[in-house]
Amino acid sequence: MSTPTAARRTAARLVPVECEVAPLLDVAFSRWTTPVLWTLNEFGRQRFVELERRLGTITPKVLTQRLRQLERDGLVTRTYYPEMPPRVEYEISELGRTLGPLFALMATWAGRHMGEVEAARRAFDADS
Amino acid sequence: MSTPTAARRTAARLVPVECEVAPLLDVAFSRWTTPVLWTLNEFGRQRFVELERRLGTITPKVLTQRLRQLERDGLVTRTYYPEMPPRVEYEISELGRTLGPLFALMATWAGRHMGEVEAARRAFDADS
Questions:
Q1: pLDDT digits (tens, 9 = 90+) for B22-57
Q2: What domain count does chain A have?
Q3: Chain A: closest CA distance from residue B40 (Å)
Q4: Do B60 and B114 belong to one domain?
């Protein structure tokens, strides 16, 4: 018979499992990383001020941080033109482009199922 | 000729664009939401203590919060058995299962490209 004590004993034998998806979350799927990558993927090479405008509510500080992280992770390339005055442009890298099919699948999921998520929320809130 | 002032004028005409992927991030792709869903998807129906054990470092407080959020969003179902003592089990819902192909594609991407991300990081850090 299954009792909480038995369940606890079963659980004690379980070892933590590595979620294979988790490492990617920090790289490309967070509050601002995704919109930055998505915008560069959709609209091509852009200056800081263009990205900022398209992203709407991001602060310059957060945009600077995210771009630097994405550059470090090899997903975005930054090109500096030593003109007078200097010009800097950002572009999604070849590695970054490999995220395209994932973005497309996620957008399809959102289009198909976000209505169900919202309905579930309304039902849950009405119940509690 | 393109000057920063011209770029600023171009940017001023840009309107914010909706990132189609962003709404899904809060629902299924965050620090703990993903591992909880992924574990329920991989190992089936589980009690709290089993989930906790498999997730390794999650605190009971955060696990409780994530499960409640996922239940509210319709991705997880919670079944209460009024036994003595009571038993509660968690299971991924039919809606939650539709995330499966996304998880699979993300795991494939991570397996294929995380090495490139790490190499990019080493190169960036050596450079700066």
A1: 889 989 998 889 999 999 999 999 999 999 999 988
A2: 1
A3: 11
A4: no
